[in-house]
Task: structure prediction
Amino acid sequence: MDQRVLVASNRGPVSYQFGADGSLTGSRGGGGMIAGVTDGLAALGPETSVTWICAALSDADRTVARSHENSLRDEAGIPVRMLDIAPGTFDRAYNNVANSALWFLLHQLFDTPSQPRFGREFRRDWESYLAYNEAFADALTEETLTGATLSSVADPRVLVQDYHLCLTPRLLRDRLGEAVRDIGIGHFCHTPWAPPDYYRMLPDEVARALLDGILGADRAGFHAQRWATAFMDCCAAVLGADVSRTGLAGPGPGPAGRVTYRGHVTEVAVHPLGVDAPALRERGRAGDVRAHVSALRRAAGDRKLIVRVDRTELSKNIVRGLEAYRELLATRPQWRGRVVHLAFAYPSRSALAEYRAYTDQVRELARQINGEFRTEDWDPLILEVKDDYPRSLAAYALADVLLVNPIKDGMNLVAQEGMVLTERGCALVLSREAGAAATLAADALLVNPYDVSETAEALHRALTMTDAERQRRSAALAATAAADPPARWLGGQLASLGS
Amino acid sequence: MDQRVLVASNRGPVSYQFGADGSLTGSRGGGGMIAGVTDGLAALGPETSVTWICAALSDADRTVARSHENSLRDEAGIPVRMLDIAPGTFDRAYNNVANSALWFLLHQLFDTPSQPRFGREFRRDWESYLAYNEAFADALTEETLTGATLSSVADPRVLVQDYHLCLTPRLLRDRLGEAVRDIGIGHFCHTPWAPPDYYRMLPDEVARALLDGILGADRAGFHAQRWATAFMDCCAAVLGADVSRTGLAGPGPGPAGRVTYRGHVTEVAVHPLGVDAPALRERGRAGDVRAHVSALRRAAGDRKLIVRVDRTELSKNIVRGLEAYRELLATRPQWRGRVVHLAFAYPSRSALAEYRAYTDQVRELARQINGEFRTEDWDPLILEVKDDYPRSLAAYALADVLLVNPIKDGMNLVAQEGMVLTERGCALVLSREAGAAATLAADALLVNPYDVSETAEALHRALTMTDAERQRRSAALAATAAADPPARWLGGQLASLGS
Result:
């Protein structure tokens, strides 16, 4: 019998743009989640029928959604159903609730004396978040029940993605009624989860609804044990749910516990998302990447390279990373003239004032550091703010040290991609607050992301590591990153939802 | 045999000012901690000999400390030993470590994308915090060993106060050597304590040193079970100490658990600090308070009064309190013209930029609210920024509703003083994040301090409460606040340290 898989996520595998002449062109959706799901689905084979449900993100998307409601496909040929949600509703759900309140909450980014303020406006935004989740639940219900009428197709398994869609599992369960028994619903959260003391900043009814929403799923997945534990702690503290923690044997995938609430059991599990190492290495051999390798090598000369690659996202901690580099140059003068820091800080969420201010802060600090230490033939810091994927891969290939120091991060792909692509071995300075720290702890240099001095010292230690040690650690890290490729990550979730 | 008690705290019971002619005058030190300790000591009786060790806070204090090293006394006649710590050391220990890093950490006030940044400067500040704690430990050692030579005086009990002096108990224990066996060392923290996930923002060595420092005491006290639990959780997570939680039977004083570390056992206990109700009521009958009662009554007319009294301290959450009042007027128009909000926001820590900016924000918001709702004969909001204790007491006497909505608060005296002084019964809208919420939960209206709408609704509910309900709740709250007066709070700690 053929398998059927339904994926639901805010951003889909394809998005559209209007050309200057009004024509529409599609392109692949960006981001780690899309890549992970797409690559995971690709490994399932032709006996699996997939439908991907996503939101129209722009006017161009909406135009396509209206005219091709049931006939869209992404580059890989997967049918895509794009939901035409009213722009105001989408904006409030996506920008105000998901990317402001929830993202800030789950990454613990609030400037607490001032933010958040949950007043009347937030209640209106929250209604939109509910309506947006209902649109997904309606579409999933329709797809589920349609599929169920075909006797040659197995009952579907539903994979709901991320913090945008916390309410969807419960809404779907309620809509399906008795039919839910034959259907497996999974939810996967790509972000961290906050411990109860922080989580309870949310209004009570919102705090309860989000947890209850995810508990509508049969399986709730996280990248790391730590986030799974925080989620279960919230279920116990906020909902009074019955929680049993089974614990994990190691840092890899496995069950973390179960939560019983409203007569339903949700298994909570850890599924770290690594990288498809062979595909990534192949991409790294392409001409555009090689050209950047040559250019970067010329720019750096024979100096050591410290690399970072991030969106300019508050959680990525770019400012403290630059401060650590400044402290390295100040306290270890032997590195002056002998190291270059390549900091790629790509634009992100520039619609939000906090992000614009943060970008300004990054630029100003970079200017200060160069002003402080620059010599006639040495620029200590090269800050690039224009996104360039092949150049990022080239930087990974050349880096002596990769700096990944987020305040909080659900997993972190940069650390893993860097270890896979390094050509002569690369030391990894990694925040202990990244989900990836659970799998990479043994061979990375772990740092407290708030501790600028400790980070500076870790950079020094990374720079002074012997070639042999660096290569040994780097190879071990690459093997770990390659151990949980998207196919395993997605396959593990599907397997746990039954056949 | 006479008892001997040594108190150590940053701020002492007396402080000095230079007059215009260069003469020195002393006045009573301010703040809830000073009042609690002073009143607690007063109840001990003449068979107890007390010495209070504190820091010189100003040039005037330093001048006095140098010329009267061993002969200072406070208003109650208690001998005071004022430590003349170098101004730079004091400034770094007090402003940079205690009031910036530690206060922000324990109240969870950091704007995490930018603050804290623990770099080289912090390490220098931390050395000063250590030196400052060493000065206290040296003085305590001297006082302890001096006292021990008098056979008519029992071995002393030492009461170390607050987050300024976290290292002192361990330093004192180490200095005393074998002599420590006969001496009881207590530490009491008047702030909240942060759970491990937040606490671990500190550099590792600092996080360990603070906990280890307090664990040098035989008893560690907190105002509420919640902070005691967070402290013990940090001891387990950060130090790997052996922690056994005994739990409390109720919200009042009692043991919370014990921590075993480096071969020494520290009992962790809860001692809520309430108010001396008879003394407070007597103060409330004084002429200066009565004059303010009349003036405030005239200003408010027959309108309902919502009162808040706070230092303009980031943790006090004044901005969200004003937002809640604005939302009340917007969503419940029946209160327009029928209620006045008296907001007393006294100056605090104006040396710190964050506090000056916050004060500006409070003023601007107050201006907006008055601009939005003011009518010819009604000012909806009266903001007073000049400290006036008798006027505060008068406001308590008249308030129909007292708003106390801190983000986090070790205990909170305003809530308790207000309930004791109300003349016709007062409804209490209280943050669940205040330590006092543990004892006052049954009859206060508890709110999530981040939830402006919930706070607005609680204000509405408080305003619409029947006289009978308000008076019943208010009387119960006053009785609870009076149940743990300073004498009991201090006596309980001394009793637990043995005779």
User: Anything to note?
Assistant: The mean pLDDT of chain A is 94.
